[in-house]
Design goal:
Blueprint: H1 4-10, H2 22-27, E1 33-37, E2 40-43, E3 48-51, H3 54-57, H4 66-78, H5 91-103, E4 109-115, H6 118-135, E5 143-147, H7 156-161, E6 178-181, H8 196-214, E7 219-224, H9 240-250, E8 254-258, H10 272-275, E9 282-285, E10 297-302, H11 303-310, H12 329-345, H13 347-368, E11 372-376, E12 383-390, E13 395-396, H14 398-410, E14 413-414, E15 416-418, E16 421-424, H15 432-447
Parallel strand pairs: 3-14, 5-6, 5-7, 7-8, 8-9
Antiparallel strand pairs: 1-2, 2-3, 4-10, 9-10, 11-12, 12-13, 12-16, 15-16
Length: about 450
């Protein structure tokens, strides 16, 4: 390994970072993380902090989950790779598909299509949605509807359905046939509606209106995160997703839930769809499926979609889609171990308890600091603070968020600044003491403004 002087000198010189401007990374070199244990990370200078980002929403079980590490090591010895394209497979991926069908049975999921991560899982769901309608003799159903403020990865399909211009503008023109409706976001919405339940109804009505305008027979699917994550942790009212499900079902439109963040316990339920009592047609999952230790994902497929493909005898049912690493045996072994440990620890209980602690704590900070315009969360370990320079005008301020992030890091917690939002998504094994450190670090950050 190169020494610390080399690493600091070459930080961001040859490496382009995702979600960053190359020049900014050179001007403001990224923190170099060199070690981690439990829920704590350590940088190149030996400074240790609680990881309130959870890697990137994905290290649910922390950095010391030995069963997953052991499974990866053992699989590298037994079978480090083989393709699952037509004609071959491996033992671990067969076992994993069985375990996931059992895990997601309450959500109505019965089949798995394995991917390399969240963007792949979303792309797979979009492609299968279009193909599903072709299999059923409705080839004109090609359009997608999604939420403004939603995030669905960075492939062309995902960028096209993303509801944030930051991930779209520089890459246009994108996939045609993608349309957006307002998100149920009480702090900012075009209806000037602050009541979450009324807003849910207005957004559902906007969906109905868009479907009628486009024509139901032209729409393949509606996709949404059960709780919007990267957009700033925006939980809809409990009535919203059931309304969406009914509207989609009535119009023959598939409902896809993007559970890349919300699956496997983060919301305090085992899936975001289950949190709201809805059974979607497909689910995109990744991130916590291997605790972040191996790039892996799974698009989960409901019985209705599965039957359409499996009962088809024409070439339309052939799935001309897949990845070199679909069903990677090392990833499958990691996912099996991770799923077993996730269930053994019953992480939903701690996610709910610690999530309440953090949510209550940041609401108290909201009362203390005018620069906090809005606080969102209350469903597991997904919490956000929105920073504003003028509370009455709700003027978003990304510089405040960045300043708070820097001071919080010095005071013991790595938090994530995303535009004007400070996002908290720590591991689900977070302790009460760890949560208190995060809150104290945030307090120090705002106090330093």
């Amino acid at each position: 390994m190169k020494d610390s002087n080399f690493l600091k000198e070459h930080n961001a010189r040859q490496l382009w970072h995702p979600m960053a401007h190359p020049t900014d990374s050179q001007t403001n070199p990224p923190v170099i993380i060199t070690g981690a244990e439990g829920v704590t990370i350590k940088d190149i200078d030996g400074h240790e902090t609680v990881d309130a980002v959870g890697g990137l929403w994905n290290v649910n079980l922390g950095y010391s989950c030995q069963p997953v590490k052991d499974a990866i090591a053992a699989q590298l010895t037994d079978l480090p790779y083989y393709s699952t394209f037509r004609g071959t497979t491996n033992d671990k991926v067969i076992e994993l598909a069985h375990e996931l069908a059992d895990f997601f049975a309450p959500d109505g999921m019965t089949r798995s299509f394995f991917t390399s991560g969240g963007s792949d899982s979303v792309e797979t769901a979009l492609r299968l949605a279009r193909q599903y309608h072709k299999v059923r003799g409705e080839p004109g159903r090609v359009k997608f509807i999604s939420l403004k403020k939603g995030y669905h990865g960075t492939h062309i399909g995902g960028a096209s359905i993303n509801g944030n211009a930051n991930f779209r503008t520089n890459y246009e023109p994108l996939l045609p046939g993608c349309y957006h409706i307002p998100a149920p976001y009480p702090y900012r919405n075009p209806f000037n509606e602050t009541d979450p339940e009324r807003l849910a109804g207005l957004c559902a009505a906007a969906l109905e209106d868009e479907i009628a305008f486009q024509g139901p027979s032209t729409i393949a699917a509606f996709i949404m995160e059960p709780i919007l994550g990267a957009g700033g942790v925006i939980p809809p009212h409990a009535s919203f997703m059931p309304q969406v499900h009914e509207i989609c079902d009535r119009n023959g439109i598939l409902l896809i839930t993007d559970e890349v963040i919300t699956a496997y316990g983060r919301t305090g339920a085992w899936s975001g769809a289950r949190l709201w009592g809805v059974k979607p047609d497909m689910m995109a999952t990744a991130k916590a499926i291997t605790n972040g230790y191996f790039p892996f994902g799974a698009t989960m497929i409901g019985e209705k979609v599965a039957e359409a493909f499996e009962n088809d005898t024409s070439p339309n049912g052939f799935i001309g889609h897949g990845y070199t690493y679909s069903g990677h045996p090392v990833g499958a072994a990691a996912a099996l171990a991770c799923l077993a440990e996730t269930k053994r620890l019953n992480v939903t209980e701690n996610a709910a308890a610690r999530g309440t602690q953090l949510f209550d704590g940041v609401r108290a900070l909201n009362e203390k600091y005018a620069q906090i315009g809005d606080v969102r969360g209350g469903h597991g370990l997904m919490t956000a603070l929105e920073c504003v320079s003028d509370p009455s005008a709700k003027t978003p301020d990304k510089d405040i968020a960045a300043q708070v992030q820097e001071v919080a890091y010095k005071n013991g917690a790595m938090v994530r600044a995303s535009g004007p939002n400070i996002i908290l998504s720590p591991p689900l094994i977070l302790s009460e003491a760890d949560a208190a450190i995060i809150l104290s670090a945030l307090d120090a950050g705002f106090a330093a403004l």
